[in-house]
Amino acid sequence: MNKGQKTNDFNEIVFGRKSIKQYDPSITISRQEMTDMIAEATQAPSSVNMQPWRFVVIDSVEGKEALAPLARFNKDKVMSSSAVIAVFADMNNFDYAEEIFGKAVELGYMPEETKQYQLNAFKPLYDNMSKSAMRENIILDAGLVSMQLMLVARAHGYDTNPMGGYEKDQITHALGLDADRYVPIMLISIGKAASEGFQTYRLPVEKITTWK
Ligand SMILES: Cc1cc2nc3c(=O)[nH]c(=O)nc-3n(C[C@H](O)[C@H](O)[C@H](O)COP(=O)(O)O)c2cc1C
What domain of life is recorded for the organism (predicted)? Predict the structure, then answer.
């Protein structure tokens, strides 16, 4: 198990995850452990491995107090959790292409020719991609990392709640980010549950699946 992980029991992690409405406010998560969890979550796959996810971790009282008025009906979660992770997606993600592929070469994960081949293939694609296509792309990737982060949190013994109920038109600016560049994805509260999550129903597989 990685440092800080409490369990690698897959069933416990996946089926034990419930959205948590109230947290024990006395629990703090160290920045080192939060860093470890983000690093683990970012093993998620992404389009062309561009990893367009960006995170703002709000773990101070002042930070949470500033966030709470933007969190609509989620204020209690914001204030009682150990931290809120604001997940964003970066429209300029391809700026990191050289670093991502360059490091892969340096680490011996791919030969230089493969890097050049991939960059030559993808650069024009990304340069000419419409804003809406880019948004769609990066929102998908950031959703994957968000899910992975919630499961990683479970492995570290924490609970979470994904939140879409907040002022998306204000959050980016409020956190000091460029709203034209960073797309808000969701807030994730994280901490130790003070009360159990609700049981929630899932549609049966035959209602949501077709076979060909
Ligand atoms: C994108 C997204 C946005 C959500 N927004 C909120 C929210 O604003 N407030 C809240 O209490 N729960 C929110 N939820 C949690 C869902 O209500 C919850 O995942 C769903 O009811 C299933 O319950 P479970 O997570 O306990 O399995 C959100 C979930 C997702 C995936």
Answer: Bacteria
Contacts of 51 (CB under 8 A, 6+ apart): 42, 93, 96, 100, 141
CA of 193 to the centre of ligand 1 (A): 15
CATH superfamily of 10-208: NADH Oxidase (3.40.109.10)
Token pair of 155, please? Answer: 């492995």
Phi, psi angles (nearest 5°) of residue 46:
-150, 160
Residue 91 has a pLDDT of 98
Amino acid identity for residue 7 in this structure:
T
Atom 30, ligand 1: residue with shortest CA distance: 162
Report how far Cα 55 is from the mean position of its chain's Cα atoms: 7
- Collapsing DSSP states into helix, strand and coil, what is residue 17? coil
Atom of ligand 1 nearest to the CA of 20: 26
Domain ranges (residues) in the chain? 10-208
Average pLDDT for 25-30? 98
